[in-house]
Amino acid sequence: MPPVPYGWYAVLRSAELRPGKVVSLHYFGRALIAFRGADGQPTVRDAHCPHYGAHLGVGGKVVDGAVECPFHGWRFGADGRCVEAPFAVRTPKVSLGGFPVSEHSGLIFVYAGPGEPSWEVPEIPETGSGDFADPIDDTCRARIHVQEMRENIVDESHFHFIHGQSEPPVQDLRPDGPFAEVRGRIGRRVLGWDINNTFDAFMYGPGVMVVRSHGPVLSVTAVALTTPVDDRTSEMRMLYYIRKPSRLPFLVPALKLVFRAEALGEVREEVRIWDHKIHQPRPVLLPHEKGIKALRRWYAQFYPSDVPAGQLREPALRSEVETRAGTGSD
């Protein structure tokens, strides 16, 4: 299975790409750069100059809306085409590869896949709403495929062992083309309070998920951004938007402290597990564990049609015993 499912991925927050600056990135197994053109719109291109291979993100600069190579001064516009090459009789007809780019909700998205995208990630209203505090921004990387990061939201049993829920939640996954929704409920005890929240997880392709959790004590919108780094590693960036209490807005710092103490530690525990797990193409599932199979059926649309659903590329170093151990029932 390809390490990069086709779809939109967030590679930067908008505030991280200031006009006139070049930002180095590494996703999809490629060295990349991002900068804003003369019109202020972001672009994400391959990082190495086709002239002699210099990395445009290391010493490169933006000049008149184009990125200038630090080695020989070649310039490339926001569309990737070379616009200037000092001492050349004619400007070379070469370009930097790149991606379709979209910017909204305080995020810069790129589309990874063949052709032009046929769908878009909808705007996320909480990112610009005064009803929510500035987000808690938490980023981590793990040796896991992005699909398995997404499967976490429908892994019913882990909500008890990792997140302290008394029993696995009953969930309902509703697919809608490249979008899907999962509804459920989380019940647990936090600092002496009984938290009984509903949640709705809205999935926008393979790389973007928005989880809205509503409750009488705490309401949070979590924007989960999962992006392939290379064929072995994925990044998960979580932006947690806490709703300000309408009558007690001064409680926001305290709510953030409680949330960090409770939630981020659990995320780190999951990451440690992900870093050492293997992919099971045919997991041995219990009767109540229906979410993983349902999500894999939906997620299969983001791969070439000749790739069987659920079959990830196996890690390079797998023993024969481990391979045989992964042949349980569907």
From TrEMBL:
Per the record, what are the reactions this protein catalyses?
A: cholesterol + NADH + O2 + H(+) = 7-dehydrocholesterol + NAD(+) + 2 H2O; cholesterol + NADPH + O2 + H(+) = 7-dehydrocholesterol + NADP(+) + 2 H2O
- This entry's Enzyme Commission designation comes to 1.14.19.21
Report the residue ranges that make up the Rieske domain in this protein: 9-110
InterPro entries referenced in this protein's UniProt entry, alphabetically: Cholesterol_7-desaturase, KshA-like_C, Rieske_2Fe-2S, Rieske_2Fe-2S_sf
Please list the cofactors this protein needs.
Fe cation
Give the superkingdom in one word.
Bacteria
What does the entry give for GO biological process? cholesterol metabolic process; lipid catabolic process
Fetch the CDD domains from UniProt. Answer: Rieske_RO_Alpha_N
Pfam families (alphabetical): KshA_C (PF19298), Rieske (PF00355)
Which terms are listed as keywords in the entry?
2Fe-2S, Iron, Iron-sulfur, Lipid degradation, Lipid metabolism, Membrane, Metal-binding, Oxidoreductase, Steroid metabolism, Transmembrane, Transmembrane helix
What GO molecular function annotation could you give as one example from this UniProt entry?
A: metal ion binding
- Tell me the pathway: Hormone biosynthesis; Steroid hormone biosynthesis; dafachronic acid biosynthesis
Where does the UniProt entry say this protein principally localizes? membrane
Where in or outside the cell is it found? Membrane
By sequence similarity, the record places it as follows: Belongs to the cholesterol 7-desaturase family.
Quaternary structure, per UniProt, is: Homotrimer. The two-component system 3-ketosteroid-9-alpha-monooxygenase is composed of an oxygenase component KshA and a reductase component KshB.
PANTHER family found in the cross-reference section: CHOLESTEROL 7-DESATURASE NVD, IRON-SULFUR DOMAIN CONTAINING PROTEIN
Q: Can you name this protein?
A: cholesterol 7-desaturase
Tell me the organism.
Answer: Streptomyces scabichelini
